[in-house]
Design a protein that fits this description.
1% strand; flat; 25 helices; two-stranded antiparallel ribbon; 554 residues
C-alpha cells in the first residue's frame, strides 16, 4: 500500500512544540508576535485554503496588534489579539462572510475544533500497511460520553457539597494514578510541559483544519443590506410578525394593515417624543445651563443614570427597527412616522450628548478612571448606533445592515483603543491635574507595573498627599484607623499608652509614610525579579524601559 501522510499532521505537531517553547513560564510579548507569524505562515501557504482579499483585510489588524503587544503587552491589547485572531480564522475558512461578529463566532468554533480536526486527518492517513481509521474510530464512543460525565459532575458538584467531596476524591485518585504511571515511564519529562504541548497541538489543528459545518455562513449569505418589499405569507411566522399581531390584532390580516401599523407608530412616537422632550428639558436646565448650584454629586449623576440611559437608547433603536423592518418603509403615507422617528433619533442623540457632558464634568473635577473612559466608549457606540438607525430608515436598509455596520465599527474601535497605553495615560493625567482633582493614592497604585517609574519619580509628591490624608482624615495609606483603634494597639507595644493627640497624629503619619514606601518598594522589587526570571521571548518594550528606568533610580 502506498504511504499517505497529510502534511498538516507533522505541521500540527511542530506547532505544539513551538507553542510550548514560546509560552512556557513566559509573559506575553515578543513570543506572541512570533506565534502570529507562525499562524500566517501555516494559513497563508495552505493550498487547501484559497486566497481571497478578506485574508489580507483581517490579517493586517491581527499582525498590527501582535506588533504592538511586543511594545506594550496590555490586557486590552491581548484581548484584542484574540478577537482579531478569531475574526481572521472566521474569514479565512469562510471567505464570503460579511459581518465581523459572525466571523468571530465561527473563528471561535474553528479554534476549539482542534481535536476533531486531528481525528479527521488521522482517519484519512495510512502509513505503509497501517491504517489509522480502525484505531481512531472507537475514540468517538469514549470522548463524547466522557465529556458529558465531566460536565454534569461539575454541575452536580456545584449543587451538592457532599457529591462534590466524593467527586473531588475520585478525580484526585485518578490524577494521582496516571501521574505515577507517567512519572514511572517518563521520569525526566514534565507533565505540565506535555499538557502545554498538547494544548499547542490542539490550537494549531484548530487553525488549519477547517470545520465542515457552514450553517452560520450560509444563513448570512442569504442576507443583504437593502430592503425589498415582500408579500406577506400567512403560513410563515416570525417574531416581529407575531408581535405585530399582538399589538394590532386581526388588523394585520386585512388590507388596511399598513395603515393601522402606521397610525399605531405615529401615536407611539408622539408619546415617546413628548416624554423624552421632558427629560431633555430637565437636562438643558440643570446640566447644560448649570442651574443646580455649585455642588454636584457627579457619581450619582453619571454612574447611577448612565447605564439606564444607554439601555433606553438601545431600546429606542429596537423600537425604530421594529416599525421599519417591513413594508411600512414602502408605504406612501409614512412621511409623518418617518419625521417623528427622525425627531426621536435626534432627541436620543442629545441624550447621548448629555451623557458625554456628565462624563466630561466628572473627569474635570475628579480625574480619569477606566469606568469614566468606559462610559465615553459606550456613549460613542450608542451614538454610532443612532446614526446607523437613521441611515436604515432614510435609505430603507435591512436589520442585517445594522448588524454588519455596527459590528464593523465595534471591531475598528476596539483595535484603535488597544493602541493607547491607558495605564500610563491615566496616571500621568491625574498627576498633572492633581491641583484641581486631588490625588487618590490608592487608585494610582492600582495600575500595572509599567506605571512604577512614574510613581517612583513622584514618590515625594505622593508622600505629601499620604501625609495630608493621615492628618485630615485620620486615614493611613491602604487602611483606615481611627484614634480609638490606634489606642487599642498600645497593648501590642506598637504605640505607648496615654499618648497625646499630637503624638497619635505623628504616629499615624509615620505609619502611613512607612506603609506607602514599603508597598511601592515591594512592587518595584517584585517587578524587577519577575522580569529577570523570563527570557527574551517575553520582551515588551515598555516593560523593558520601565526596568531600565527603575534600575537607574535605584
Amino acid at each position: 500500500m502506498k504511504q499517505q501522510i497529510d502534511y498538516r499532521l507533522p505541521l500540527i505537531f511542530i506547532g505544539g512544540l513551538l507553542f510550548q517553547y514560546l509560552f512556557w513560564e513566559e509573559f506575553l510579548g515578543l513570543n506572541l508576535l512570533i506565534y502570529t507569524l507562525f499562524i500566517f505562515i501555516i494559513t497563508l501557504t495552505d493550498k487547501g485554503i484559497p486566497f481571497h482579499k478578506n485574508k489580507v483585510y483581517t490579517a493586517l489588524p491581527h499582525l498590527s496588534i501582535a506588533i504592538y503587544i511586543s511594545y506594550n503587552n496590555s490586557n486590552l491589547a491581548t484581548v484584542t489579539w484574540f478577537i482579531t485572531l478569531f475574526i481572521y480564522l472566521g474569514t479565512l475558512h469562510f471567505p464570503l462572510l460579511k459581518s465581523a461578529v459572525t466571523a468571530m463566532l465561527l473563528g471561535v468554533l474553528q479554534a476549539v475544533s482542534g481535536p476533531y480536526g486531528i481525528f479527521t486527518k488521522l482517519q484519512a492517513t495510512t502509513l505503509g500497511k497501517i491504517n489509522f481509521k480502525p484505531l481512531i474510530k472507537p475514540i468517538k464512543y469514549v470522548v463524547l460520553p466522557l465529556l458529558m460525565v465531566i460536565i454534569f459532575c461539575t454541575l452536580y458538584s456545584t449543587a451538592n457539597p457532599i457529591f462534590a467531596k466524593y467527586t473531588q476524591l475520585i478525580a484526585d485518585s485518578i490524577t494521582l494514578f496516571f501521574t505515577q504511571i507517567f512519572n514511572f515511564l517518563f521520569i525526566d519529562i514534565s507533565i505540565p510541559k506535555c499538557l502545554l504541548i498538547l494544548l499547542g497541538i490542539f490550537i494549531t489543528a484548530g487553525l488549519i483544519v477547517g470545520i465542515k459545518s457552514k450553517l452560520l455562513a450560509e444563513i448570512e449569505l442569504e442576507e443583504n443590506d437593502q430592503l425589498t418589499r415582500k408579500r406577506s405569507d400567512k403560513k410563515t411566522s416570525w417574531f416581529l410578525q407575531d408581535f405585530r399581531i399582538l399589538l394590532a390584532g386581526n388588523q394585520t390580516q386585512k388590507i388596511l394593515a399598513l395603515k393601522t401599523e402606521n397610525t399605531v407608530g405615529i401615536i407611539c412616537f408622539i408619546m415617546l417624543n413628548l416624554l423624552l422632550m421632558l427629560l431633555n428639558g430637565i437636562d438643558i436646565y440643570t446640566l447644560w445651563l448649570n442651574n443646580v448650584g455649585t455642588t454636584k454629586n457627579f457619581s450619582a449623576a453619571l454612574h447611577d443614570g448612565t447605564t439606564t440611559l444607554i439601555f433606553s437608547i438601545v431600546f429606542a433603536m429596537l423600537i425604530i427597527v421594529y416599525f421599519f423592518s417591513g413594508n411600512l418603509n414602502f408605504y406612501k403615507q409614512n412621511k409623518w412616522i418617518k419625521l417623528l422617528a427622525y425627531i426621536w433619533i435626534a432627541q436620543n442623540a442629545f441624550l447621548v450628548a448629555s451623557v458625554f457632558h456628565r462624563d466630561y464634568d466628572y473627569i474635570v473635577y475628579h480625574g480619569l478612571t477606566y469606568k469614566r473612559i468606559g462610559v465615553a466608549v459606550f456613549a460613542t457606540l450608542s451614538l454610532v448606533g443612532l446614526v446607523t438607525v437613521y441611515l436604515k430608515v432614510a435609505q430603507q436598509k435591512t436589520v442585517f445592515y445594522l448588524y454588519r455596520l455596527n459590528a464593523k465599527v465595534w471591531y475598528l474601535l476596539i483595535i484603535v483603543l488597544s493602541f493607547i497605553n491607558w495605564d500610563v495615560f491615566i496616571v500621568r493625567y491625574n498627576l498633572a491635574k492633581a491641583d484641581k482633582i486631588g490625588v487618590d493614592v490608592d487608585h494610582l497604585m492600582s495600575f500595572s507595573d509599567k506605571t512604577l517609574p512614574i510613581l517612583n519619580e513622584n514618590r515625594n509628591f505622593l508622600l505629601r498627599h499620604v501625609v495630608i490624608e493621615a492628618e485630615n482624615n485620620k486615614q493611613t495609606y491602604g487602611k483606615t484607623e481611627t484614634t480609638d483603634s490606634v489606642v487599642k494597639l498600645a497593648d501590642s507595644e506598637m504605640i505607648k499608652p496615654q499618648l497625646s493627640d499630637a503624638e497619635l497624629k505623628a504616629q499615624r503619619i509615620k505609619q502611613a509614610k512607612d506603609y506607602f514606601n514599603q508597598e511601592l518598594d515591594d512592587r518595584i522589587d517584585r517587578f524587577l525579579k519577575q522580569q529577570k526570571s523570563v527570557s527574551w521571548l517575553s520582551f515588551s518594550y515598555l516593560e523593558w524601559k520601565a526596568v531600565e528606568n527603575l534600575k537607574k533610580k535605584n
